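hey so i finaly got around to running the thing on Wzz/FepE/Etk N-terminal domain-containing protein from Streptomyces ochraceiscleroticus. pasting the sequence first so u can double check i didnt mess up the copy paste, my clipboard has been acting weird all day
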Amino acid sequence: MNDDTIRLATIGRLLRRRWRLLVLLTVVGTLAGYGTSMVFPPRYTASASVLLPGQWEERELLTQVDIATSSSVVDLVAAELGWSDVSGDELRDRVTAKAADGNIITISGTADTPARAQQLSDQVARQFVGFAARIAGGSTDPDAATGTEALRQKVVETNRRITDLANAADPGQTVESVQARTSLEKLRTSLEEAMTKLDEADPATDKAGMVVMGPAVRPTGEAPPTRMQLIVAGALLFFLLAVIGHLVAARADRRLRTEPEIAAALGSALLGTVDVPADAPDDIPGERRAHRPEGRGRQARIRRLLGVDTRWDIPTPQWPGDEAGSRIRYRRVCARLRDQLPAPRRLLLVVPDGDEIALRAAGQLAAEANSDPSPSSSGRGYPTLRVVEVSVDRPIVPDRDTESGALVVLSAGNWTAEELTGLAEACADGGHEVVGIVVAGTVRARPTRSAGDPPDKATPVLAVRGHATGGAV
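ok and heres what it spat out for the 3d tokens, dont ask me to read them lol
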């Protein structure tokens, strides 16, 4: 198909002519989304926040996030919760953590009920704080903190005792007294250095311990994707797939739509284009009556109900001109055909089987030619035309008898180059030269005339069908 498939007007035409099918597919997508929501039960997510006081670098925060979701922490949570219907691996998939501004780590837990989600996130936060404190060298045991403080008191008492001993030593300047005071000062210095190293090793000296900022809030709504989100996503997905499928099919369509392409496939010259009024104001060009069966089976009725019995990718018919202008087109085609032939003769009007628009145009063209207007200055009238329908699947044109030559009449956008090439070869096999091509197009039907309106000067004509299925005609 040409570039018309990607224009907004083409999409609008698709929506207008295929809206019933698109609505049906959208409903199917809605049901598919609802079914998916039934397969996957609703989930609820609760979040708890942990504050990390002090100065933390970004990489340190990311390390703490990884620790919060590690198997070591989650296994402790699983053992504490004791949920028999959820394994440790499943629980690990339901826990997430992320670092927020202000040295805050948000821990989220997802479960099948709001109460479980709240319980899970609170338990993960508590286990994370305890585990992080242990691996950092701290402890959440109050006895350990009491022992550290007692050690500090002992060191202070020892320093005081050393001072007393130094003062009580022999104030003289003997070698023994000097050595005793020197040893006591070295002992005091060693104790002070040991306490300094102990303070530096304590993480509480530069960073306070992590704090859980209250219990998690019990969730009141489902976690995404919710049932409504799945339903909307299913409907939208099916609608978009239907639209894209129609556009891809139109792009891959190999039927010829322009006069130069049709003329090249048939190997002959284009004599002109003619207009055919549609059966109804809303008829779509390129429609075939065979595509609009009336009461021929349930499948045909379903296709007609969904609007898939007609093509959507043909432009909307234009409003017609006056009756005289339409007849002028037919007369010009007959005049060109007369001027092209060396002498008046009988020709076949070859119409592809099933092309109702071309068949009606051929009937009008044959009637115009057979009306035999006043001869031109050359003394020659229009050639005599006889309409025959030829199947494009197995094209067979009657052998050359009284007719010597073929004029092909067809509508654009219905036939591929291979089909038209086969039609031209069938004409050659029957001994007929393709003397020209006429392309028929559809225009909107004219308003119905009232009883008092005068009739047109044009005489209505009917196409005389000739059958070309292999037998004599």
